Amino acid sequence: GENVEQHPSTLSVQEGDSAVIKCTYSDSASNYFPWYKQELGKGPQLIIDIRSNVGEKKDQRIAVTLNKTAKHFSLHITETQPEDSAVYFCAASSSNTGTASKLTFGTGTRLQVTL
Amino acid sequence: DGGITQSPKYLFRKEGQNVTLSCEQNLNHDAMYWYRQDPGQGLRLIYYSQIVNDFQKGDIAEGYSVSREKKESFPLTVTSAQKNPTAFYLCASKRSTEAFFGQGTRLTVV
């Protein structure tokens, strides 16, 4: 099955700096890579996703890059703000028709943005 | 409002008791999932259902059971066979590839 590794497990940055979280996956059939943000005591919320036919996607201060050859993808947050502090999860899945489409998650990164 | 509702938010269980966690969605999604979250271990898949009256075991199904009698509902029962049930449980539903999560149920064994 799919295995997703995520690094670092904790990340502390100063407000205004950039944050980068990296993930690797094992199943070459995976073609969908979402990133979720989880605030304390709440369920994860999708913040950005990328499909395997795209190398980079941006949405305001956040961006995701994908390297299919190396099987890794990264989340970039620029101009970090205190409200960016949360736990971030990467995930991978295959959306091939006829197979069970399951999301496999990384172990999470706790991001702290300090003033 | 459309979304996924999990109840209760907090649940306490005595050892040896079965408890059922509720998950309801009004998003008209076919697929529903249960995940368990422990500190430092991310989200691990317990059970999932692609369609009514059908479900499959995930990676950590032992000690859990589910049913899917209605499209909107996917309850999870934590049985007395689950040796370490204290955790945060998350339900999700999926349209195509995007998953939507509920707010979770924190289960504590006392």
Query: H/E element string of chain A?
Result: EEEEEEEEEEE
Oligomer: heterodimer
Any idea what the radius of gyration of chain B is?
A: 13 Å
Q: Major beta sheet of chain B, specifics?
A: 7 strands, mixed
Mean pLDDT of chain B: 93
Shape of chain B: globular
Please give the share of residues in helix of chain A. under 10%
- Residues in helices of chain B, as a percent range: under 10%
- H/I helix tally of chain A: 0
Q: How many strands of chain A?
A: 11
> How would you sum up the major sheet of chain A?
6 strands, mixed
Ranges of chain B with pLDDT <50 over ≥5 residues? none
Structural class of chain A: mainly beta
Structural class of chain B: mainly beta
Distance between the termini of chain B: 35 Å
What is the overall number of helices of chain B? 0
User: Largest interface here, residues on each chain?
Assistant: A-B, 26 and 29 residues
Shape of chain A: globular
- Return Rg of chain A in Å: 14 Å
Distance between the termini of chain A: 41 Å
Topology:
The complex is a heterodimer of chains A (115) and B (110).
Chain A: E1 4-7, E2 10-14, E3 19-25, E4 32-38, E5 45-51, E6 56-59, E7 62-67, E8 72-77, E9 86-92, E10 104-105, E11 109-114
Chain B: E1 4-7, E2 10-13, E3 19-25, E4 31-37, E5 43-51, E6 54-57, E7 64-66, E8 76-78, E9 87-95, E10 98-101, E11 105-109
